[in-house]
Amino acid sequence: MNTWSEIAEIQPLTSKILTNSIQKSRISHAYLIQGERGTGKEAIARLLAKVLFCENVIDRDPCNNCLTCKRIDSGNHPDIHWVEPDGLSIKKEQIDELQKEFKYSGLESAKKVYIIKDADTLTTNAANRILKFLEEPNIETTAVMLTENSQSILSTIRSRCQILDLQPLNPVQFQKQLLDSGVTEGNGALVAALTNNLDEAIKLSEDEWFAQARKLVVQLVEMFIVKPDEVYLSIHNQWLVHFKERSQLEQGLDLLLLAFKDILYYHIEYEALVLYYKQDEGLEKAALFFSQPKLLSILQSILQAKRKLKQNVHPTLVMEQLTLHIQR
What InterPro entries does the annotation carry (predicted)? Predict the structure, then answer.
């Protein structure tokens, strides 16, 4: 998204607020942009940075063609600093390094911008460092913090920012975008349940690795029913081999969650909500095997497994514990 009109298609209110500020030359020294994953937080931050640095702004939009705009798109502009979690959090040392950078004037202008992704992961010490930045704002410095949960951020930080709440994407509109991009209806409904990012959803629908991941989930559920004694071996020989990276395993758990949700929906006759088992006879078999209370317990255990991954528990241990819980 390279223009405010494109932003307005998914975030009309935020687009209007920012374009009005640009027109009146009243851009805030600090913004806190809150919204679900895929709602356009990074695109808005990048576009705002372009407006601040582009020398050919036309009617509130950057030109998107000059060297400055291209360097911002590639993440190589020396006066725009992106900060993101190092592991599970943004640490004090990262903010200390940022502060060192800001002691010097901009390399190419008097302006500087810093954008903090997942700002809710700031450690207490890092948050206090950022607070000092915000309490003593430089007129040429603009801070943009991005988060899915602003309530996890210090109230003293929130009070010093202009807060922009992004609205959730319209799922019907999103699936229409996927259909218009050539994604089949069945695939579109499934990937839309995993991500709100159009490019990521299209990539998933075309990815062979993802197609194999879907098959492995169906096979795993099937094994719990017909070959329970072989599940543990399958976890080690197939599942953990395919889902090698932690992010891949998270996606595998998301798919497993959707599969078991489908079985529950079948139980309660909400088949219109079924995503994973479209036109699959295995759904009825699974519904006969897993009771509603058991399904609720399994869904909770999958969510717990996802939390353990976030807490850096070893993936093998996470899957072994999940397998044992489902088999009980």
Answer: AAA+_ATPase (IPR003593), DNA_pol_HolB (IPR004622), DNA_Rep/Repair_Clamp_Loader (IPR050238), P-loop_NTPase (IPR027417)
Helix H or strand E encompassing 163: strand 162-165
Q: Give the pLDDT confidence score for residue 110 in this predicted structure.
A: 75
Q: Which amino acid is at 157?
A: I
* DSSP H stretches of helix in 181-239: 185-192, 198-206, 208-226, 231-234
Please list, in sequence order, all residues whose beta carbon lies within 8 angstroms of the beta carbon of residue 293, skipping any fewer than 6 positions away: none
Phi, psi for 145 (deg, rounded to 5): -110, 135
The continuous run of DSSP H or E covering 114 comes out as strand 112-116
Q: What one-character-per-residue DSSP string does 129-154 give?
A: HHHHHHHS--TTEEEEEEES-GGGS-
- 30-34, strands of its sheet edge to edge: 80-83, 112-116, 141-147, 30-34, 162-165
Structure tokens at 136: 């003593």
User: What integer best gives the mean pLDDT of the chain?
Assistant: 88
The CATH number of domain 4-165, selected from 3.30.565.10, 2.40.50.40, 3.40.50.300, 2.60.40.1180: 3.40.50.300
pLDDT at 145 (0 to 100): 95
Residue type, 202: I
Contact (CB, 8 A) for 323 and 267? no
Q: Cα–Cα distance between 53 and 239 in angstroms, integer?
A: 47
Under DSSP, the state recorded for 265 is: H
Instruction: Render pLDDT for 247-270 as a digit per residue (tens, 0 to 9).
Output: 899 999 999 999 999 999 999 988
Neighbours of 273 (CB within 10 A): 12
Burial class of residue 257 in the structure, from the number of CB atoms within 10 Å of its CB (0-12 exposed, 13-18 middle, 19+ buried)? buried
